[in-house]
Predict the structure.
Amino acid sequence: MRRTIPKVAALAAVAMLALTAPAQAQEADANHRAAETAYFEFTDNTHERAILKLTDPAKIQHARDLVNGETTDRPHLVGRIIKREASYNPRWSYHYNPDTVDFFDNFIEVCDATIPYVEDHLDEAGGAFLPGLVWCPWTSRLVREIPAP
């Protein structure tokens, strides 16, 4: 009997570790993803402002370098829009898909539009206006990094 109790206790401890380890790993993974998310305010020549979510570490660093004046390379935004409001960008009925955002110096004219023009013509986006929902406001520029909403 004396040997059985330690064996049962050891098995119980292993079972507890097996049950808690995946939860801890999921929590660590969620924290890691949260650390790789950053939000930036951007504007264009209309002086309207919108919020951008970035999840790619290299693009987050490039955005921070732009905001901090450490680079002037590729200062404008390009990416596909999603035609619905995002919790972090509630003023507008659309937002950039974070997985598609990139930066550019020069781009094709067919995807150029201002922040309010996209809002006003959102029902046309994806057709002749902003084909493929690709938006590249030529006068876009990051203003600042903001805390996560």
In short: Residues 38-146 form one domain. Strands lie at 38-43, 49-54, 76-82, 95-96, 102-104, 125-126, 129-131, 134-135, 141-146. The first helix runs from residue 4 to 35.
